[in-house]
Design brief:
Blueprint: H1 10-13, H2 17-29, H3 31-52, E1 57-66, H4 79-95, H5 99-109, H6 121-127, E2 128-132, E3 138-145, H7 148-169, E4 174-179, H8 192-218, H9 226-230, E5 236-241, E6 243-244, H10 265-285, E7 289-294, H11 301-314, E8 319-323, H12 331-335, H13 344-349, H14 355-358, E9 360-362, E10 367-370, H15 379-383, H16 386-398, E11 401-405, H17 414-419, E12 424-430, H18 436-444, E13 453-461, E14 468-469
Parallel strand pairs: 5-13, 6-14, 7-11, 7-12, 8-10, 8-11, 12-13
Antiparallel strand pairs: 1-3, 1-4, 2-3, 9-10
Helix pairs in contact: 3-8, 5-6, 5-7, 10-11
């Protein structure tokens, strides 16, 4: 089979809704990993905050600026004087950051560094912050160091030296201390122990989300229905969305079927559309025996095979559904039949029963079935026997359609063997599950049989038309009733042998 060598990427036409929803679903599925990553990074942030924490002490001075040369006139300022004082406050605060004033403060504070070297003007400027209160003439000068005595000493040195600097820079103005500095009795509050964990939580959250999305992007799977054509070069028969379902207490477990209205309108209509496409192809190519398989287990092939058979039967066709997944038969369980005593194909091949004796009819589904409740290990030998080809040929003569559920074609050779007896193949591809390379490799195994694939069913789509919610609980279509799922048998349906 020929595949497109240059598959179309999502970014060429923008991110599709199907892909976007799939990414969102992956993130929701990994919520615990994301939360754990965020908490871990928050813990790391807290550890960094603790490791970097050093006690700091601050001493603060409050000044009030005036455009008058005397502080006595501050209380009697006119509105124009107040506005001028507010403007001056913005200018005064820059005086405190000058190197000249910082040098005087360093020389007069009387403190030295721990190594004995004198405190420099550069250090003084680093210790000091100046802030003017908006629309007021108030200025705050704050000195912060790791020693409360040093902070207080530097602040007091500013009180002793600022007047000369202000008078030089702004003559005929006044800057008055209205709240002198005090020695800090306790260290400043530490916001880093809250800030760092919050920052770590946010970074961890988004980093985990990014890693998950990147992993999905670089995972070479079929992420949307367009990629069935673009990556695999196959025809798309239909898109089956995820179905959300919860069985009522005491209700027998069985597959999601189009005969059950609780499966959702979209789900039912999707299979009717697939049925129409199959009927059109069958009328042109005279297809009767159709294999339904998937690359890997749990892609929903049994549910698809069963619903294709049911949809054809609803359209008045005579349909035989054969469970040829001999290692893990599940058609009976999907339909809710009891098949514990049925040997199905194995009984016919061994000569214990004839085809007519083994086929049963369900009045409920108006469907003929050849099911098995006994798993075997030597399925390849049984299916490759001449008797198996006779079974398929005989069934094709008796029924309008023969739908054959097989084991995954990417795991064992059973599907490839049966392809030699069938007319065409329907491949079930689950969203973001099997890699495109693995699907292609599995499909290549059908080439020797000469049987072509009629098309693909894109299953478990997050944006499929069959998305629905049943009883409010999530149920992933394709997860529960596929290859390898185990559960108790349901109630028996009415059974009737076909006689002609």
């Amino acid at each position: 089979m020929n595949y497109n060598s240059e598959p179309k990427k999502d970014y060429e036409e923008g991110l599709s809704l199907d892909t976007a929803l799939m990414y969102a679903k992956k993130l929701m599925d990994k919520w615990f990993v994301i939360l754990l990553s965020a908490i871990l990074c928050a813990g790391i942030g807290f550890g960094v905050a603790v490791a970097r924490y050093t006690e700091h002490y601050s001493s603060q001075i409050m000044f009030i600026a005036s455009n008058k040369s005397s502080a006595i006139t501050v209380a009697g300022q006119s509105s124009s004087d107040v506005n001028a004082s507010v403007s001056l406050a913005e200018s005064f605060k820059y005086v405190f950051t000058t190197t000249e004033l910082a040098t005087k403060v360093a020389n007069s504070c009387g403190y030295a560094n721990p190594d004995g070297s004198p405190i420099t003007a550069v250090q003084i400027k680093r210790y000091v912050s100046v802030q003017s209160i908006e629309e007021t003439s108030i200025i705050y000068l704050t000195v912060t160091t790791t020693n409360p005595d040093v902070s207080y000493g530097i602040a007091q040195a500013y009180v002793d030296n600022y007047n000369e600097a202000i008078a030089t820079a702004f003559p005929n103005t006044a800057l008055t201390v209205i709240d002198p500095p005090l020695k800090a009795e306790a260290p400043n509050g530490d916001n880093t122990k809250l800030l760092y964990p919050m920052l770590g939580f946010v970074l961890g959250f988004f980093a985990a989300c990014l890693c998950i999305i990147v992993a999905v992007v670089f995972k070479d799977t079929i992420k949307n229905s367009d990629e069935v054509t673009n990556k695999l070069g196959m025809k798309l028969l239909g898109v089956i969305g995820r179905v959300y379902r919860k069985n009522k207490k005491g209700e027998p477990k069985q597959g999601i079927l189009i005969t059950d209205k609780k499966s959702g309108f979209g789900f039912i209509e999707s299979y009717k559309l697939i049925r129409t496409k199959i009927e059109h192809a069958a009328s042109r190519q005279d297809y009767k025996a159709i294999i339904v398989t998937s690359t890997m287990e749990n892609e929903g092939k049994t549910t698809s095979a069963t619903n294709i058979a049911l949809s054809l039967a609803q359209n008045g066709k005579s349909v035989l559904l054969i469970d040829a997944d001999l290692r893990k038969p599940s058609v009976a369980k999907t339909l809710g039949f009891s098949a514990s005593d049925d040997e199905g194909i194995c009984g016919i091949v061994s000569g214990k029963k004839t085809l007519k004796e083994s086929i049963k009819y369900s009045e409920k589904y108006q469907l003929f079935v050849l099911v098995s409740g006994v798993a075997v290990e030597n399925s390849t030998e049984i299916l490759s026997s001449p008797k198996m080809e006779e079974i398929v040929e005989a069934a094709k003569k008796e029924f309008d359609y023969v739908i054959i559920d097989t084991a995954p074609c990417g795991i064992i050779a059973d599907a490839s063997i049966l392809a030699g007896y069938a007319d065409t193949i329907v491949l079930v591809v689950k969203q973001d599950y099997a890699s495109a390379r693995r699907i292609k490799r599995a499909v290549d195994n059908f080439e020797n049989s000469g049987t072509e694939i009629i098309g693909c069913i894109f299953n478990n789509s997050e944006n499929g038309m069959s998305n629905s919610k049943i009883y409010g609980r999530k149920y992933g279509y394709g997860y529960g009733y596929g290859y390898g799922y185990g559960y108790g048998y349901g109630a028996s349906g009415s059974q009737k042998k076909k006689s002609k």
